[in-house]
């Protein structure tokens, strides 16, 4: 086949370039699939939270989060648990800590694409150098009177340069595209987390954990903890 002929003319440098292209395709397809489904799950979860957040209904936020386990709900529940444990001032720090553990999931393996985008043109440049070296060796041996003998080195130089750029350009575009999806997911989670923190702060100012009735409920891990029956604002104790 013609493609294998071209690869053969490109010399040994073409093999790592081809390997880079295979890795790029594998990582891009896997990440696109994962991020696409993650985006849909997070959107459904946050959409279901919107009404409860607007109504300042922390109990419903808890119920929805327990029914939708995932990175977004774990981050939000980390802050809510601090409120339920009587330390609402630590809610933001708890959310940030869990976010640092969960967010890398969305950026997983994107560094591989960044690396390929960097090394592919360098491999092409290396092939250019080796091709020119081969050409000059021919010139040194037989002079410039036989262009066909020189064509192999020149062909190697041009093919590897073109191949390196052909891999680097789509990899840069693919990396940017996936990074934007991941960033949008994380921004949506951060926005919802900030809104839940506002509810916790309002409750802390109005009643803290005092004057709020509790019932036993199970969290997603099956551990019992106090959950407020109602989070409507009550008059602050004198």
From TrEMBL:
Tree of life domain: Bacteria
Domain MotA/TolQ/ExbB proton channel residues, every copy: 71-190
Major location category of this protein: membrane
Disordered: annotated segments: 215-238
GO biological process entries: protein import
Cellular location(s): Cell membrane; Membrane
Keywords assigned by UniProt, alphabetized: Cell membrane, Membrane, Protein transport, Transmembrane, Transmembrane helix, Transport
Residues annotated as transmembrane: 12-34, 110-133, 153-178
Keyword Heme: no
GO CC annotation: plasma membrane
Membrane topology type: Multi-pass membrane protein
PANTHER family (alphabetical): BIOPOLYMER TRANSPORT PROTEIN EXBB (PTHR30625:SF15), PROTEIN TOLQ (PTHR30625)
Protein name: Biopolymer transport protein ExbB
Protein's organism: Atribacter laminatus
């Amino acid at each position: 086949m013609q493609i294998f002929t071209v690869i053969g003319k490109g010399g040994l440098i073409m093999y790592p370039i081809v390997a880079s292209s295979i890795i790029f395709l594998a990582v891009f397809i896997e990440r696109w699939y994962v991020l696409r489904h993650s985006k849909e799950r997070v959107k459904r979860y946050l959409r279901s939270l919107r009404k409860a957040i607007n109504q300042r209904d922390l109990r419903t936020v808890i119920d929805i989060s327990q029914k939708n386990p995932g990175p977004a709900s774990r981050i939000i529940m980390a802050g809510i648990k601090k409120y339920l444990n009587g330390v609402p001032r630590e809610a933001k720090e708890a959310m940030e800590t869990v976010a640092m553990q969960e967010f890398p999931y969305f950026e997983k393996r994107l560094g591989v694409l960044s690396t390929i985008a960097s090394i592919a043109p360098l491999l092409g440049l290396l092939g250019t150098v080796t091709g020119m070296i081969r050409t000059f060796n021919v010139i040194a041996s037989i002079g410039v009177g036989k262009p066909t003998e020189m064509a192999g080195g020149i062909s190697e130089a041009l093919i590897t340069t073109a191949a390196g750029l052909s891999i680097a350009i789509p990899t840069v575009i693919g990396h940017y595209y996936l990074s934007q999806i991941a960033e949008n997911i994380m921004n949506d989670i951060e926005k919802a987390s900030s809104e839940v923190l506002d509810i916790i702060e309002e409750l802390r100012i109005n009643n803290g954990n005092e004057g709020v009735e509790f019932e036993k409920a199970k969290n997603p891990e099956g551990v019992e903890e106090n959950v407020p029956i109602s989070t409507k604002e009550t008059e602050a104790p004198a």
